[in-house]
Amino acid sequence: MRNFKGNINLMQLVGAKVVSMEVSGKSMNYVCIPAAWNDIYLSADKATNEPNGAYLNIRAWGTGVKYRQVCEANNADKEGYIAPSHQISTSYSEQFQKDAVAAAENRLRKNEEFMAKNLPEEEIKKKALYTVSNKGRIGTLTPLEPQQPEAYTGKAAPAQGVSEWIPPMEDSENSQSKDDLPF
């Protein structure tokens, strides 16, 4: 199985804004994301009814060869650049997807400039679907390439401050306490 690194641009979520709030006497920036506009499922603790989860379903799919080639061409000046192998998008529920496409279609039909193009019904519906799909694209994944070991030259590096192994002493002063572990 392969490992990936990636990012999600939270500002790509519908209606996302950066706001400043004062918490514990200190002003901090927060990303505010409308849950209803992004099909985010909110859960609460049954005993206290306090919120304890905000779930955004996502999916990732492989990018095409042309996409990767364009990314590589646009980043040719960056040494060691690796084009994204996957794109990440929100994974809306079936009902939310239908509602979002219907809202996008209504918005397009109210746009006089768009409707002046006299597009067939299928094209209007397709544009609405593409609008929703494009809003859901929020990030990318890039494969992590394993580090290649240095080639063996047949010569060992010179030892620095290395001596023979000294067995541990048996007295209690030198035994390590379990409370002193570095974890």
Short description, anyone?
The chain is of the alpha+beta class and 183 residues long. The protein is built from four helices and eight strands; from the N terminus they run ββββββαβαααβ.
Task: Explain how this protein is built.
There is one protein chain. The chain has 183 residues and is α+β, with helices and mostly antiparallel strands. The chain folds into two domains: 9-56, no CATH class; 57-144, no CATH class. 25% of the residues lie in helices and 25% in strands. It is built from four helices and eight strands, in the order ββββββαβαααβ. Strands 1-8-7-6 form a four-stranded antiparallel β-sheet. Helix 2 crosses helix 4 (121-135).
Largest sheet: 4 strands, antiparallel
Q: Strand order, main sheet: write it out.
A: 1-8-7-6
Silhouette: extended
Order of helices and strands: EEEEEEHEHHHE
Structural class of the helix and strand makeup? Answer: alpha+beta
Low-confidence stretches: none
